Amino acid sequence: MRLRRHTTQFVNNAYRKEITMDFEKVVSVKNMRESDARTIAERTPSAELMMRAAQGIFDKVKFAGKTCVVCGKGNNGGDGYALACILARHSMDCTIVRAVEGFSKDGLYYYQLAKSLGVNEISLYEAGNFEGYDIVVDCLLGTGFSGKVEGEIAQAITQINMTPAYVVSADINSGINGDTGYGELAVNSDITVSIGSLKTGLFLNDAPYYIDSLTNADIGIELLLDEYKLIDYDNLELFEGYNSEVYTTEEFMEKFNYSPETCNITEIVAEMSVKNKKTIVVKTEHSAVIADVKYVYFCADYIRN
Ligand SMILES: NC(=O)C1=CN([C@@H]2O[C@H](COP(=O)(O)OP(=O)(O)OC[C@H]3O[C@@H](n4cnc5c(N)ncnc54)[C@H](OP(=O)(O)O)[C@@H]3O)[C@@H](O)[C@H]2O)[C@@H](O)CC1
Ligand SMILES: [K+]
């Protein structure tokens, strides 16, 4: 399935250059979840969307050797059980770990299906540091996560972060807030496969330091709101000239007295840019959010198609 793209023109103030670009969408968690819900209500059963999410991960990652899928109790875990079904159907070696008790409705369906297809299951304790696996898939927490990780989830994240295996995060690195990118303890991924559309949190705060590469799997969800746009990282410098205020995340938090834990940088820079009629850039070492009065853009040097 092709990612929906929109072509837009914008004029850069500093260089008066006209640039025509294809924009991929970046969205808030609320928009993603409400768009998911509408798609389910109007067109596509939730179990079908979950299978598409799993297929998206399967298509984006070159699965080989032994895979261990580590699941939480929500639909992010459900994506993991559906992926285990796909791997089993391809006769690939797959083990699941239920890091916490409980299932979502669709998660339970795919868990039972995976078991009936002969997928092996071990406990989190038995999984240890996931030695002996080639790939570990992090399906603990997705867009339903907020607050801080504790208990078994914190334990599972710590264990995943000790594995020598290639780590794949489903949708969002578990422990990272999908809106703010804040995460004190989160999974370090080799690749994160975002589901539906890229979430703002994948570019902000701590997220860029947990993600090695980032890609998105389109699963046919039509967005309710057209929010933010993805641009090439190479174009960041075009926004850093005349009439721009450029901050690192730390400088931004300090100057305006925000706490990274609660600050929604995207909403704040969007408002500031309109109010002051200025371009505002907030950067990490690998990514940036740019509010340019009319539009908000995101970019990162770890985007992969
Ligand atoms: N149908 C769809 O919409 C589709 C969704 N899709 C997938 O579903 C994901 C969203 O699924 P979701 O909404 O079930 O939430 P999810 O991210 O699995 O986690 C929620 C669980 O975590 C828990 N939890 C929360 N905070 C916590 C904390 N601090 N520490 C510990 N636990 C915490 C919370 O528990 P509770 O607090 O409610 O007891 C709840 O059980 C999305 O990212 C995508 O991967 C795709 O399949 C496409 C179709
Ligand atoms: K995850």
Question: Short description, anyone?
Answer:
It is built from nine helices and 15 strands. The protein is an alpha/beta fold.
Shape annotation? globular
Q: From the helix content, strand content and strand pairing, which structural class follows?
A: alpha/beta
Q: Which fold name corresponds to the CATH topology of the largest domain?
A: Rossmann fold
Radius of gyration: 20 Å
Bound molecules: ligand NPW, potassium ion
Largest sheet: 8 strands, mixed
- Kindly report the average pLDDT value: 93
Give unreliable regions as ranges: 1-20
| Count of distinct structural domains | 2
- Identify the CATH architecture of the largest domain: 3-Layer(aba) Sandwich
Specify the helix fraction band: 25-40%
Binding site for (6S)-NADPHX: 75-79, 142-148, 171
Organism: Ruminococcus bromii
Cofactor: K(+)
Binding site for K(+): 76, 138, 174
Could you characterize the architecture of this molecule?
The protein is of the alpha/beta class. It has two domains: 6-25 and 229-300, no CATH class; 30-217, YjeF N-terminal domain (Rossmann fold). It is built from nine helices and 15 strands. It has helices at residues 29-42, 46-60, 75-89, 105-116, 124-127, 151-160, 207-210, 249-256, 265-276, and strands at residues 6-11, 18-27, 67-71, 94-98, 120-122, 135-139, 166-170, 191-195, 198-199, 214-217, 228-230, 244-248, 279-283, 287-292, 295-300. The strands form two sheets. Strands 1, 2, 9, 11, 12, 13, 14 and 15 form an eight-stranded mixed β-sheet that branches. Helix 6 links the parallel strand 6 (135-139) and strand 7 (166-170). It is globular and about 60 Å long. The two termini are 13 Å apart. Residues 1-20 have low confidence and may be disordered. It binds ligand NPW and potassium ion. Potassium ion (K) binds next to strand 6 and strand 7.
